[in-house]
Automatic annotation (TrEMBL):
SUPFAM superfamilies: 2Fe-2S ferredoxin-like, CO dehydrogenase flavoprotein C-terminal domain-like, CO dehydrogenase ISP C-domain like, CO dehydrogenase molybdoprotein N-domain-like, FAD-binding/transporter-associated domain-like, Molybdenum cofactor-binding domain. Residues 17-106 form the 2Fe-2S ferredoxin-type domain. This is xanthine dehydrogenase. It comes from the Eukaryota. Keywords: 2Fe-2S, FAD, Flavoprotein, Iron, Iron-sulfur, Metal-binding, Molybdenum, NAD, Oxidoreductase, Peroxisome. Its main location: other. Substrate binds at residues 782, 860, 894. It is found in: Peroxisome. InterPro entries: 2Fe-2S-bd, 2Fe-2S-bd_dom_sf, 2Fe-2S_ferredoxin-like_sf, 2Fe-2S_ferredoxin-type, 2Fe2S_fd_BS, Ald_Oxase/Xan_DH_a/b, Ald_Oxase/Xan_DH_a/b_sf, Ald_Oxase/xanthine_DH-like. Mo-molybdopterin binds at residues 747, 778, 892, 1060. Belongs to the xanthine dehydrogenase family.
Length: 1312
């Protein structure tokens, strides 16, 4: 409780009590107490101002979807500032006296902003959910730099993630402002004119609100914004427990996810004394309120005035900044906040400790004191010596001196916007004559619960001569001083120890190079993006109204860039309740009781429901997924109930108050090995036996003894999070007569309809399920959408009020499933002429706790395992294992990428074991036209060899091999690898042939306009624009006359989910069918009036009472496989082929890598829209690149999911895009089995991302061979920095103790 005296003190505080700010030029005044002071700017913009262009993708500042621009006046210089921020972290109270610009505020009805126009025309949006954030990041840069450099553009979008595009088109659009990378014709785009931008509100200037203190109170939560140091110190004395908030990246996340309440928060950003930078005699004083971006700017200015020898610490800071969080975080976060947070993996604290930085502290009672940021400052995990009443006034960065050598190294899962695994900072002063060490300082982050100074090592190295013996002795001392146990929190003990030694080794090499004036090996190669796109132009005689084959902009492209595209999260429904799931706190055990009493006391909470309130029915294709747990808890964060409240945040807080009483059982089954030991199989064993497909009556077991050239092995692929930018969400609206409207972000409106019908007992004709667009899905919104939709529907019908469910990223990643982890046990034999004779593979996939789609994924994996290679005999087996994890589910590729990865690994194993040229070996075994696959499918129009040959030429593969060989001979610790990978992806759902269908409804109006409803969901793949193009050809009318609004079960019944890359094939055929019917009805009028126009014929038909609507049907033919006997057939309608060539560079001392180039040749028939298709190819490749190299799901041995947001789970960023990204569409490869000779494109290119994996492996292999290790080595996916470094075996890794035997210790995480 807040004391009355505190409230009195608050009333006596000087300052403005109302929250005053501007949004898009409009003044906003929020009276004290009228909104929750804990609210974020994003929530206010979306829920209160209905400015839904600002998206919320993660609520932790890690994805950038919420980016907006803030304009204010500098508290010291009063100059105007523009900077981007994460609105999801920015407290609403922190915008007092500022002006906010959102994506809606930079354009008018008549004209788009150049950023918006160029991004749309460059095809830089697909699902579009991330797009407003990218627009505002770039817009903020232009406001400061109208003619930006490439480096500035790269810097400004750090912190913005896209899951769809692969970043190439986004970079193309933005680089056009630097007049670089022009693939798209932008000559008709408006030039950027900075004089036309929104002006800073004069009222803010006149009233000098930035100089006025501000205090806001709501529900006993207080926000203080003092403008003097005296005021700040008085507040801290009065409220010593008050949290000081600048960037809110720590306090905000604590409040959001851990429900840590901060009753009082103080924002010091407007205090002039804390915004000063001062050059002192031996140091630089940096005010504690300066943002990291401001410090960067100020230090660059100072560096120009100082001698180079004085700038060592400045250089370390500037070197670290591009890799510290994202740009929008750096624009508000401070050095002081980073220090006080006392994170053991801080990027900066090792720098301060190693270089002797100091903190200036001040309190009202004790005055000023200066403390060293040394080994005594951090006294425990996230604890320092700072007293509660003290504030940080300044940081003193020492000026470096002559003969000092400094370096800092950081290794993370991803280069930019990622927390460190280990950071090492080094400083040594060496006598230039004797070469002896006068002083040395070494500090590490990530090696202890605190930032740790290498005290013992430094003491023993003092006065030693800086030579090779120092390296050997220093590494041995560091190995002893920084030994980590196998059970160390954070895991990766051997890797972290290897990094500590490798960083010291790097520092030694750098220092020796400086002493000897040699050129050190450069950092990983990096240059700005280069790209080409080759595709077949439409014929010159093609009808002008025929849009097929033209590279048209996504149907919603301009709506994406302006924030006008409406997603389910943006739909406004009056009187809507908000639902939040209550989750199980354990992985495996028994639920005894749920006590919502405390939650129900919270103002605004309406109701609580659990399994006792629901009918005893289950979700899932085999009814094995409870809506809520009734007794047995099967995985961590499994839903056990739900809270309904008047707003989302109240519902979240209430859900946290529900007491879940349960008993945890020991030894949950998490891994494939644990499930195998427990015989925890799900479903039968599946078989694909090539002998049976060839007509044999009985299968003959392989006699492996007859072969001389055999390999046996095992390989694995990991789980992958979908990371769609729009999380699972829905709205349920009760209507009359037991009707209900379901607006759901889903891939299958009919599946939602079916699940709601099943659980609620309402017939389907009273359930209207619909969606306009989906903010990304990738398979993750096929089965999992019902986990939200069904509870929402139940609550809506019970309470007779609309209910919205929206999963926070933090919960979405825990509740919904991932791509299936696989383990493959293989045995393979080849002939003396290197032909594949026999292959036997046992495939095991981790299915999670329920069946979901796991059986179909398992069969798809073995059906696709042959990839592009002919095997004389193949025995392929698949089994799914049941574990205590969220159900693994559909994901782009649906098991095929995992199966093909096994095949490529087998071939690599054979090539290395028997010293074969792996390229020639694979080429010799590629399919030829008319050959049969192990599942019995005859391959017609087989373009596997064509894409391989053309990619070789397109990528200049042979030249690249020579260049890589030369580079590797010249570089000892950096290596490159180049590799080509091909893919064959079957199109169709042979597992369930009845799903290969789609319907449509076309309505023609008397003005000639056409409305199409079809069965497909627009998820960013460009389905709607392709359907419009198909209809324009079929009806021979301009595409502008045709419209698609939404997908709805009351327009097209019994729809198949939009999956398996079949959207355009099936729905396109359905539209063609319906158009054909319409044209046949209009033909008499066209014949009788041949000079008439479309609208004339339509009106004539109307007056003759001719039906001007039609339904159409699309289908393809696929045969099922008998997985019991192993006999197959034409399992797919056709196959898509492609080949990619990648060059990667690896830092063998750290495990870091960079993708230098990617060249792709893809066979997609006659493209309906080459711009859309190339975007799909680039996006799928990048998602596959993430799967095989960096994306890693981390789960504790007790089943607790650690990767629950972008802070820990890393998808590729723009910085990870290949430096050269070239795509060519195979010419003259028309496909007779699909609409207008096209081919599906969504999933087939994903496996090509593995080319990056194998290129990395080639680089690792080069390093191993250099070190005398020529044997074959197992290398599983993903190729994380840890796996790369530990595979680069050398004298350093030899120094690291091996882990003890399994089952003798508890690791931090388990391999699923």
């Amino acid at each position: 409780m807040v004391k009355e005296s505190d409230q009195l003190d608050l009333r006596e505080e000087n300052g403005v009590k109302d929250l005053i700010f501007f949004v898009n030029g409009q003044k906003r005044v929020i009276k004290s107490g009228t909104i929750d002071s804990r609210m974020t700017l994003a929530v206010y913009l979306r829920d209160h101002l209905r400015l839904t262009g600002t998206k919320i993708g993660c609520n932790e500042g890690g994805c950038g979807a919420c980016t907006v621009m803030i304009s204010d006046q500098h508290p010291l210089r009063k100059e105007l500032r523009h900077y981007s921020v994460n609105a999801c972290l920015m407290p609403i109270c922190a915008v007092f006296g500022k002006a906010i610009t959102t994506v809606e505020g930079i354009s008018t009805e008549r004209a788009l902003h150049p950023v918006q126009e160029r991004l749309a025309k460059c095809h830089g949006s697909q699902c579009g959910y991330c797009t407003p954030g990218f627009v505002m990041a770039m817009y903020s840069l232009l406001r400061n730099h109208p003619k930006p450099s490439i480096e500035q553009i790269d810097d400004t979008i750090q912190g913005n993630l896209c899951r769809c595009t692969g970043y190439r088109p986004i970079l193309e659009a933005f680089y056009s402002f630097a007049e670089k990378l022009k693939l798209t014709d932008l000559t008709d785009c408006a030039k950027y004119d900075p004089t036309q931008e929104l002006l800073f509100p004069s009222e803010l200037k006149i009233n000098n609100l930035h100089q006025q203190s501000f205090v806001y109170e709501s529900n006993q939560h207080f926000w203080f914004q003092p403008t003097t140091l005296h005021h700040l110190l008085a507040l801290k004395r009065k409220y010593p427990n008050a949290r000081i908030v600048s960037g809110n990246s720590e306090v905000g996340v604590e409040q959001k996810w851990r429900f840590v309440e901060s009753k009082r928060r103080i924002n010091p950003k407007q205090i002039p004394e804390l915004n000063q930078v001062e050059l002192l005699s031996d140091s630089i004083s940096i005010g504690a309120a300066l943002s990291l971006s401001e410090v960067t700017y100020e230090l660059k200015l100072l560096k120009a005035k100082l001698a180079a020898s004085q700038c060592g610490v400045i250089d370390l800071f500037l070197e670290m900044m591009p890799y510290f969080a994202g740009k929008h975080i750096r624009n508000v976060a401070t050095i002081a906040g980073n220090i006080i947070t006392a994170s053991p993996i801080s990027d900066l604290n090792p720098i301060w400790m190693a270089t002797g930085a100091k903190l200036v502290l001040q309190s009202e009672s004790s005055g000023v004191r200066v403390v060293d940021l040394d080994e005594n400052f951090f006294v425990g995990y996230r604890r320092t010596t700072i007293n509660q009443e003290e504030i940080v006034k300044a940081i003193l960065l020492p000026l470096s001196k002559q003969n000092e050598h400094l370096a800092v190294y950081k290794q993370a899962q991803r280069r930019d916007d990622d927390i460190a695994i280990v950071t090492g900072a080094f400083k040594v002063k060496i006598d230039p004559v004797t070469k002896r060490i006068e002083n040395i300082s070494i500090a590490y982050g990530g090696m202890a619960p605190v930032t740790k100074f290498a005290k013992i090592t430094c003491e023993t190295l003092q006065k030693k001569k800086f030579e090779r013996s120092v390296l050997d002795f220093g590494m041995e001392k560091l190995r002893e001083e920084f030994a980590l146990s196998a059970e160390v929190p954070g895991g990766m003990p051997r890797y972290r120890q290897a990094l500590a030694l490798s960083f010291f080794f790097k520092f030694y090499l750098k220092t020796m190079s400086e002493l000897e004036n040699k050129v050190e090996e450069k950092q990983l190669h990096s240059e700005s993006l280069k790209a080409t796109q080759l595709y077949q132009e439409v014929p010159k005689d093609q009808n002008e109204t025929d849009a097929v084959g033209k590279p048209m902009v996504h149907q919603s492209g301009f709506k994406h860039t302006t924030g006008k595209a409406i997603y389910t999260t943006d739909v406004i429904v009056p009187d809507c309740l908000h639902g939040v799931l209550v989750l199980a706190p354990i992985t495996f055990g028994t639920l005894h009781e749920l006590d919502p009493s405390e939650a129900l006391k919270l103002p605004g909470v309406v109701q609580f429901y659990s399994a006792s309130d629901l009918p005893d029915k289950k979700l899932g294709f085999v009814n094995d997924t409870p809506v809520f747990v009734s007794e047995e808890i099967s995985y961590y964060c499994q839903p056990v109930g739900m809270i309904l409240a008047e707003d989302h945040e109240t519902a979240r807080r209430a859900a946290n108050l529900v007491k879940v009483r349960c008993t945890e059982k020991p030894n949950p089954i998490l891994t494939i090995e644990e499930a195998l030991s427990a015989n925890a199989f799900m479903g039968p064993q599946f078989k694909v036996l090539s002998q049976m497909s060839e007509g044999k009556e009985e299968h003959e077991e392989i006699d492996w003894s007859k072969y001389d050239r055999v390999v046996k092995g095992e390989c694995r692929t990991g789980a992958q999070e979908h990371f769609y930018l729009e999380t699972q969400n829905c709205i349920a609206i009760p209507l009359e007569d037991d009707e209900i409207e379901m607006v759901v972000s889903t891939q299958g409106v009919s599946d939602i309809q079916s699940d709601v019908s099943k659980i609620l007992g309402i017939p389907k004709h009273k359930i209207f399920s619909k969606v306009r667009r989906v903010g990304g899905a990738f398979g993750g919104k096929e089965a999992a959408s019902s986990l939200c939709a069904v509870p929402a529907a139940f609550a809506a019908m019970k309470l007779r009020r609309p209910v919205r469910f929206y999963l926070e990223r933090y919960d979405d990643m825990a509740i919904t499933g991932t791509r299936h982890p696989f383990r493959f046990d293989y045995e393979a034999a080849i002939s003396k002429d290197n032909k594949l004779l026999d292959l036997k593979v046992h495939s095991y996939s981790n299915g999670g706790f329920s069946e979901d789609l796991s059986l179909a994924v398992a069969t798809r994996a073995i059906v696709s395992m042959d990839s592009v290679y002919k095997i004389k005999n193949a025995d392929l087996y698949a089994q799914v294992l049941r574990t205590n994890l969220a159900s693994s589910t559909a994901f782009r590729g649906f098991g095929a990428p995992q199966g093909m990865f096994c095949m490529e690994t087998v071939l690599k194993h054979l090539a290395e074991k028997f010293d074969l040229d792996v390229d020639q070996f694979r080429e010799d075994n590629m399919y030829k036209e008319g050959e049969m696959t192990p599942c019995g499918m005859i391959l017609y129009k087989c373009n596997a060899r064509r894409t391989w040959t053309e990619c070789k030429e397109f990528s200049k593969y042979e030249q690249k091999k020579e260049e890589v060989k030369l580079f590797n001979s010249q570089n000892e610790f950096k290596k490159r690898g180049v590799y080509m990978v091909s893919t064959k992806f079957g199109i169709g759902m042979g597992e369930k042939p009845f799903l290969n269908q789609a319907g449509c409804l076309i309505l023609v109006y008397c003005d000639g306009s056409v409305l199409i409803s079809h069965a497909g969901m627009e998820m960013g793949q460009g389905l709607h624009i392709k359907i419009l193009q198909i209809a324009s050809r079929c009806l021979n009318i301009p595409i502008e006359m045709i419209h698609i609004q939404e997908t709805s079960s009351d327009k097209v019944p019994n729809t198949t989910p939009t999956v398996a890359s079949l959207g355009s094939d099936l729905n396109g055929e359905a539209v063609k069918d319906a158009c054909s019917q319409l044209l046949s009805r209009l033909k008499p009028y066209m014949d009788s009036n041949p000079t008439g126009k479309w609208v004339d014929w339509v009106v004539s038909a109307y007056f003759d009472r001719v039906l001007l609507s039609a339904t159409g049907m699309g289908r393809n033919k696929c045969d099922p496989i008998n997985f019991e006997t192993g006999k197959g057939g034409k399992h797919f309608a056709y196959c898509v082929y492609g080949t990619a060539c990648c060059v990667a560079e690896v830092d063998c001392l750290t495990g870091d890598h960079r993708l230098l180039s990617t060249d792709i040749v893809m066979d997609i028939g006659d493209s309906i829209n080459p711009a859309i298709d190339i975007g799909q190819i680039e996006g799928a490749f990048t998602q596959g690149y993430g799967l095989f190299t960096m994306e890693e799901i981390k789960v504790r041995p007790n089943g607790m999911r650690l990767t629950r947001g972008p802070g820990v789970y890393k998808i590729p960023s723009a910085d990870d895009a290949p430096c050269a990204f070239n795509v060519s569409l195979l010419r003259d490869s028309g496909n007779p089995y699909a609409i207008f000779a096209s081919k599906a494109v969504g999933e087939p290119p994903l496996f090509l991302g593995s080319a990056a994996f194998f290129a990395i492996r080639e680089a690792v292999r080069a390093y191993r061979i250099q070190n005398g290790r020529t044997d074959y080595f197992s290398f599983d996916a993903p190729a994380t920095p840890e796996r790369i470094r530990m595979a680069c075996e050398d004298v350093i890794t030899e120094k690291i103790p091996q882990l003890p035997p399994d089952n003798t210790y508890t690791p931090w995480t388990v391999t699923l």
